[in-house]
From TrEMBL:
Domain Primase-associated N-terminal: 12-265
Name this polypeptide is given: Uncharacterized protein
InterPro entries: Primase-assoc, Primase-assoc_C, Primase-assoc_N, WH_Primase-assoc
Residues covered by the Primase-associated winged helix domain: 278-361
Primase-associated C-terminal domain: residues covered: 385-502
Organism: Halogeometricum pallidum JCM 14848
Domain of life: Archaea
Amino acid sequence: MSTPTPVDDERTAYRVAALPLEYGSTRINQLFTRGYNRYIVDGEDQPDDLLDDLERFGTAAFKENVRTNAADEPFVDEPGTLAVLATLAAICVKAHPKFEHAPPRKIQVLYSIRELYVNNLASLLREFGDATLQQDIAEVLYAKDTSGESPHPGRVCTGITEMPEFGGGLYLEIPMVAASRNCLVYDADRRDAGTEDDREILTRVKDNRLYVPAGDFDEKYHAYAERAFKKLLRVQEDGLSEDQQVWLTTNESAITDRINRFIETGHHERIWRNWDQGERTIRVLRRAISESADDVVQQDEFHTAKELYSAVTAYDTENNWEASITDWISSPSSLAKTLANHQSHSAVTIKRDGRVNQYRIGHPGTGSTQIDVDAIEDLFELPCMANMEERLHEKKPIRKDLYNFARMVMWLPQYQNSSLDEIVADLKDVFSRWPWYDEQVTDYQIRYEFTNTIDGNTPLPMNCDNDDMQRYCIGKDQCPYSIWGSLPFPDEMYNQVDEHGSGRTEQF
């Protein structure tokens, strides 16, 4: 008897669609084949029908209500078709010229497509109604690590059942001998209670079995499905020939047109991840000020809204999203209102002690005591760096100390056009003051740090919130300085800060 495949067996198709991280490329491509077969009629390919459906799926992903409703009622009615349409739509998005050099984790459209896929898959699995498939998924989510041990011979999840004695609701039944720590579910509504020990455990125990609330299953599987989509997309990309990809991206138009429309109308939050209108507005104001004549306005100086508005109106940009912001600022009063709305931004300071308010636009951290850095040694004016300097007389540096030192120096204005040999020589002069200094080792370590990039960008220097700086910090409340606010870093560094945002970017 032949082994069933996703091509011709519905349950196998659902299992591969539900758990692609547990399968290789062969099974996943068979799932795609099942989806493509829908577009073959009487032995003839129907490429126009495929194109229509993937454009319908891709454009629907822009709509929040469609993505949300897909969790209750499937937008696409079959798992193979769903996998094909979602991955092809994502490939079209990645091929858009606007995203040519953008890492996928920054493209909001990909997250929207993934959300529609994950919600659609969840509703398909629910409608399929196979309890054993739910148990298969539970095997992956809740089984303990058996590295070096024999795997549990029976089911990890032995049932999904109502438990009236626990207050009602569905629970997954898991023998304690097969359970992992993932089975411990804490009350999500009491995250402010402190450590896990302070919160109520929602997992119940009866007859040597754990009973896990079904809601935790849904939450953990949602996270799994998000990771799984990345693998589906990779397998689809690897499986398409160059000619097929060219045909796809050449003939698709609806998704591309929708992206272009959002760009032209300034709806950047629809296409870029973690878009912050306030950050972008301040960024445009900085650029307008930096390109204005010094006798008009200057960065880090106080000016009236009228003076700043003159810089905005004079700012000539060919960038559509920047133009949308400058056009939106229609008068000095609208600029004043904009700055008032964003006065909590670290680069905005408003002086209200006169008849007319004055505004200062600076770098993040403006308000900190400024440091003129003519030589690398001037960095030791920062109390944290002074503490580091003192410690390095007593102990060898950890790698993060060298990393931070090197990155600070790399971003200093006087080294922007210097060769690596020049920077290394100056750093070695500084490092030679410490007793552990070894010229060859230090030369290698510095060069190593300078070769590391993140997506082709020079890594930012650590800021005051970085955990690794806390061992040297005297306390932000006590310190008149800040690393990003006190040092004369160039605009390019602050632009990179704007692009990355204040929080860590979620990986796609």
